[in-house]
Amino acid sequence: MNLNTLRTLAIVLLLAASASAQQPAIPSTGFAGLDQYRASRIAVYFDDFGQLSRYRAANVALKPPAPGENRVVFFGDSITDIWKLEDYFPGKPYINRGIGGQTTPQMLVRFRQDVIDLQPRIVVILAGTNDIAGNTGPMRLEDIEANYASMAELADVHGIRVIFSSVLPVHNYTARAHDFFAQRSPEKILELNRWLKAYVPKNADCSYLDYFSAMVDDKGLMKRDLADDGLHPNKAGFSIMAPLAEAAIEKALASKP
Asked: Can you give the pTM of this predicted structure?
Protein backbone atom coordinates (compact mmCIF):
# COMPACT_ATOMS: atom_id res chain seq x y z
CA MET A 1 0.00 0.00 0.00
CA ASN A 2 1.61 3.31 -1.08
CA LEU A 3 1.70 6.56 0.87
CA ASN A 4 -1.13 8.25 -1.05
CA THR A 5 -3.44 5.29 -0.42
CA LEU A 6 -2.63 5.38 3.29
CA ARG A 7 -3.37 9.11 3.43
CA THR A 8 -6.71 8.60 1.66
CA LEU A 9 -7.68 5.77 4.00
CA ALA A 10 -6.76 7.87 7.04
CA ILE A 11 -8.93 10.75 5.81
CA VAL A 12 -11.90 8.44 5.19
CA LEU A 13 -11.59 6.95 8.68
CA LEU A 14 -11.37 10.40 10.27
CA LEU A 15 -14.45 11.60 8.40
CA ALA A 16 -16.39 8.50 9.38
CA ALA A 17 -15.39 8.90 13.02
CA SER A 18 -16.41 12.55 12.96
CA ALA A 19 -19.81 11.77 11.43
CA SER A 20 -20.40 9.03 13.99
CA ALA A 21 -19.52 11.36 16.85
CA GLN A 22 -22.07 13.87 15.64
CA GLN A 23 -24.92 11.34 15.62
CA PRO A 24 -27.18 11.84 18.66
CA ALA A 25 -27.45 8.92 21.06
CA ILE A 26 -30.77 7.12 21.30
CA PRO A 27 -32.54 8.89 24.18
CA SER A 28 -33.03 6.82 27.30
CA THR A 29 -36.54 6.21 28.60
CA GLY A 30 -35.27 5.74 32.14
CA PHE A 31 -36.15 2.05 32.03
CA ALA A 32 -33.29 -0.28 31.14
CA GLY A 33 -35.60 -3.02 29.90
CA LEU A 34 -37.54 -0.66 27.64
CA ASP A 35 -34.30 0.87 26.32
CA GLN A 36 -33.03 -2.61 25.44
CA TYR A 37 -36.33 -3.50 23.79
CA ARG A 38 -36.36 -0.34 21.67
CA ALA A 39 -32.72 -0.89 20.65
CA SER A 40 -33.56 -4.46 19.62
CA ARG A 41 -36.40 -3.18 17.39
CA ILE A 42 -34.43 -0.64 15.36
CA ALA A 43 -34.31 -2.93 12.31
CA VAL A 44 -38.09 -3.44 12.52
CA TYR A 45 -38.78 0.27 12.86
CA PHE A 46 -36.66 1.07 9.81
CA ASP A 47 -37.38 -1.93 7.57
CA ASP A 48 -41.00 -2.93 8.32
CA PHE A 49 -42.53 -0.49 10.80
CA GLY A 50 -45.99 -2.04 10.75
CA GLN A 51 -44.56 -5.59 10.58
CA LEU A 52 -46.60 -6.38 7.48
CA SER A 53 -44.48 -9.47 6.94
CA ARG A 54 -45.76 -11.12 10.13
CA TYR A 55 -49.11 -12.27 8.71
CA ARG A 56 -48.51 -11.83 4.98
CA ALA A 57 -48.40 -15.54 4.16
CA ALA A 58 -51.31 -16.37 6.47
CA ASN A 59 -53.42 -13.62 4.89
CA VAL A 60 -52.72 -14.92 1.39
CA ALA A 61 -53.69 -18.44 2.46
CA LEU A 62 -56.91 -17.33 4.15
CA LYS A 63 -60.00 -17.93 2.05
CA PRO A 64 -62.75 -15.29 1.80
CA PRO A 65 -65.55 -15.69 4.36
CA ALA A 66 -68.11 -18.33 3.49
CA PRO A 67 -71.72 -17.16 2.95
CA GLY A 68 -73.22 -16.36 6.33
CA GLU A 69 -69.86 -16.55 8.12
CA ASN A 70 -69.51 -14.05 10.96
CA ARG A 71 -65.77 -13.57 10.72
CA VAL A 72 -64.16 -11.60 13.55
CA VAL A 73 -60.60 -10.27 13.65
CA PHE A 74 -58.99 -9.76 17.04
CA PHE A 75 -56.51 -6.97 16.40
CA GLY A 76 -53.94 -5.80 18.90
CA ASP A 77 -50.58 -6.15 20.61
CA SER A 78 -49.04 -8.91 22.73
CA ILE A 79 -52.16 -9.38 24.85
CA THR A 80 -54.00 -10.41 21.69
CA ASP A 81 -50.95 -12.14 20.20
CA ILE A 82 -50.66 -14.63 23.10
CA TRP A 83 -54.42 -15.25 23.31
CA LYS A 84 -55.13 -18.73 21.96
CA LEU A 85 -58.53 -17.95 20.52
CA GLU A 86 -59.22 -21.54 19.49
CA ASP A 87 -59.11 -22.58 23.17
CA TYR A 88 -61.61 -19.95 24.30
CA PHE A 89 -63.85 -19.74 21.22
CA PRO A 90 -63.86 -23.27 19.77
CA GLY A 91 -65.34 -23.56 16.33
CA LYS A 92 -65.73 -19.80 15.89
CA PRO A 93 -64.39 -18.04 12.77
CA TYR A 94 -62.23 -15.75 14.88
CA ILE A 95 -58.83 -14.70 13.54
CA ASN A 96 -55.92 -13.51 15.66
CA ARG A 97 -53.92 -10.60 14.26
CA GLY A 98 -52.06 -9.49 17.35
CA ILE A 99 -48.37 -8.56 17.29
CA GLY A 100 -46.41 -8.27 20.51
CA GLY A 101 -45.05 -4.84 21.41
CA GLN A 102 -47.01 -2.88 18.83
CA THR A 103 -48.38 0.62 19.28
CA THR A 104 -51.39 2.21 17.56
CA PRO A 105 -49.32 3.87 14.77
CA GLN A 106 -47.92 0.45 13.85
CA MET A 107 -51.39 -1.07 13.95
CA LEU A 108 -52.76 1.69 11.76
CA VAL A 109 -50.07 0.94 9.14
CA ARG A 110 -51.22 -2.69 8.86
CA PHE A 111 -54.96 -2.14 9.31
CA ARG A 112 -55.75 -2.69 5.64
CA GLN A 113 -53.71 -5.88 5.21
CA ASP A 114 -54.58 -7.50 8.55
CA VAL A 115 -58.19 -6.35 8.93
CA ILE A 116 -59.92 -4.81 5.90
CA ASP A 117 -58.60 -7.29 3.34
CA LEU A 118 -59.77 -10.23 5.50
CA GLN A 119 -63.40 -9.07 5.12
CA PRO A 120 -64.56 -9.57 8.70
CA ARG A 121 -67.95 -8.56 10.02
CA ILE A 122 -66.33 -7.26 13.19
CA VAL A 123 -62.89 -6.19 14.41
CA VAL A 124 -62.12 -6.29 18.15
CA ILE A 125 -59.38 -3.74 18.81
CA LEU A 126 -57.27 -3.92 21.97
CA ALA A 127 -54.48 -1.33 21.92
CA GLY A 128 -52.90 1.60 23.70
CA THR A 129 -50.93 0.14 26.57
CA ASN A 130 -47.67 0.12 24.59
CA ASP A 131 -48.29 3.68 23.41
CA ILE A 132 -48.45 4.77 27.05
CA ALA A 133 -45.22 2.88 27.72
CA GLY A 134 -43.51 4.57 24.77
CA ASN A 135 -42.48 1.46 22.85
CA THR A 136 -42.10 3.46 19.62
CA GLY A 137 -41.38 6.77 21.30
CA PRO A 138 -43.29 9.28 23.42
CA MET A 139 -46.99 9.45 22.56
CA ARG A 140 -49.52 12.10 23.53
CA LEU A 141 -52.94 10.84 24.52
CA GLU A 142 -54.42 12.97 21.72
CA ASP A 143 -52.34 11.10 19.16
CA ILE A 144 -53.34 7.68 20.50
CA GLU A 145 -56.97 8.76 20.34
CA ALA A 146 -56.51 10.00 16.76
CA ASN A 147 -55.17 6.57 15.78
CA TYR A 148 -58.19 4.89 17.39
CA ALA A 149 -60.48 7.19 15.40
CA SER A 150 -58.62 6.56 12.14
CA MET A 151 -59.00 2.80 12.53
CA ALA A 152 -62.71 3.19 13.28
CA GLU A 153 -63.24 5.39 10.24
CA LEU A 154 -61.40 2.99 7.95
CA ALA A 155 -63.50 0.12 9.25
CA ASP A 156 -66.71 2.08 8.78
CA VAL A 157 -65.93 2.79 5.12
CA HIS A 158 -65.63 -0.97 4.55
CA GLY A 159 -68.72 -1.98 6.51
CA ILE A 160 -66.81 -3.49 9.44
CA ARG A 161 -68.16 -3.01 12.93
CA VAL A 162 -65.63 -1.96 15.56
CA ILE A 163 -65.51 -3.18 19.13
CA PHE A 164 -63.09 -1.02 21.08
CA SER A 165 -61.71 -2.90 24.07
CA SER A 166 -60.77 -0.96 27.16
CA VAL A 167 -57.07 -0.71 27.98
CA LEU A 168 -56.42 -3.29 30.69
CA PRO A 169 -55.32 -2.28 34.18
CA VAL A 170 -51.80 -3.17 35.32
CA HIS A 171 -50.39 -4.16 38.70
CA ASN A 172 -47.06 -4.16 40.53
CA TYR A 173 -47.68 -7.03 42.93
CA THR A 174 -44.85 -9.22 41.62
CA ALA A 175 -41.18 -8.62 40.86
CA ARG A 176 -41.84 -9.26 37.17
CA ALA A 177 -44.50 -6.58 37.16
CA HIS A 178 -42.53 -3.60 38.45
CA ASP A 179 -41.13 -2.31 35.15
CA PHE A 180 -44.34 -2.87 33.17
CA PHE A 181 -46.30 -1.03 35.85
CA ALA A 182 -43.86 1.88 36.08
CA GLN A 183 -44.07 2.44 32.31
CA ARG A 184 -47.87 2.52 32.24
CA SER A 185 -49.57 5.30 34.14
CA PRO A 186 -52.90 4.14 35.63
CA GLU A 187 -54.15 7.71 35.16
CA LYS A 188 -53.43 7.58 31.42
CA ILE A 189 -55.14 4.19 31.15
CA LEU A 190 -58.24 5.66 32.77
CA GLU A 191 -58.14 8.68 30.47
CA LEU A 192 -57.93 6.54 27.32
CA ASN A 193 -60.82 4.41 28.53
CA ARG A 194 -62.89 7.52 29.23
CA TRP A 195 -62.19 8.73 25.70
CA LEU A 196 -63.19 5.40 24.16
CA LYS A 197 -66.44 5.29 26.16
CA ALA A 198 -67.25 8.82 25.03
CA TYR A 199 -66.35 8.13 21.38
CA VAL A 200 -68.49 5.04 20.95
CA PRO A 201 -72.00 6.57 21.41
CA LYS A 202 -71.23 9.10 18.68
CA ASN A 203 -70.44 6.36 16.17
CA ALA A 204 -73.21 3.90 15.39
CA ASP A 205 -70.96 1.07 14.21
CA CYS A 206 -68.73 1.12 17.29
CA SER A 207 -69.21 -0.46 20.70
CA TYR A 208 -67.18 -0.56 23.90
CA LEU A 209 -65.92 -3.75 25.52
CA ASP A 210 -65.17 -3.11 29.17
CA TYR A 211 -62.53 -5.58 30.30
CA PHE A 212 -61.18 -3.02 32.77
CA SER A 213 -64.06 -3.08 35.24
CA ALA A 214 -64.02 -6.88 35.45
CA MET A 215 -60.26 -7.10 36.01
CA VAL A 216 -59.49 -4.17 38.33
CA ASP A 217 -59.17 -4.49 42.11
CA ASP A 218 -60.11 -2.08 44.90
CA LYS A 219 -56.77 -0.29 44.51
CA GLY A 220 -57.34 0.48 40.83
CA LEU A 221 -54.82 -2.15 39.71
CA MET A 222 -55.08 -5.43 37.82
CA LYS A 223 -56.20 -8.21 40.15
CA ARG A 224 -53.04 -10.03 41.13
CA ASP A 225 -54.19 -13.51 40.10
CA LEU A 226 -55.11 -12.41 36.54
CA ALA A 227 -51.61 -11.50 35.30
CA ASP A 228 -48.35 -12.98 36.53
CA ASP A 229 -46.27 -10.10 35.16
CA GLY A 230 -48.79 -7.37 35.90
CA LEU A 231 -49.64 -6.78 32.24
CA HIS A 232 -50.35 -9.93 30.22
CA PRO A 233 -53.41 -11.92 31.26
CA ASN A 234 -52.85 -15.52 32.28
CA LYS A 235 -55.38 -18.31 31.88
CA ALA A 236 -57.56 -16.84 34.65
CA GLY A 237 -57.42 -13.43 33.00
CA PHE A 238 -58.39 -14.68 29.56
CA SER A 239 -61.17 -16.76 31.12
CA ILE A 240 -62.73 -13.50 32.31
CA MET A 241 -62.13 -11.71 29.01
CA ALA A 242 -63.51 -14.41 26.69
CA PRO A 243 -67.20 -14.34 27.73
CA LEU A 244 -67.15 -10.54 27.77
CA ALA A 245 -65.77 -10.52 24.22
CA GLU A 246 -68.31 -13.10 23.06
CA ALA A 247 -71.19 -11.10 24.51
CA ALA A 248 -69.94 -7.93 22.82
CA ILE A 249 -69.62 -9.74 19.49
CA GLU A 250 -73.11 -11.23 19.72
CA LYS A 251 -74.57 -7.83 20.58
CA ALA A 252 -72.77 -6.18 17.64
CA LEU A 253 -73.97 -8.87 15.24
CA ALA A 254 -77.55 -8.46 16.42
CA SER A 255 -77.59 -4.67 16.06
CA LYS A 256 -78.79 -2.97 12.90
CA PRO A 257 -76.09 -2.15 10.34
From this structure: 0.87
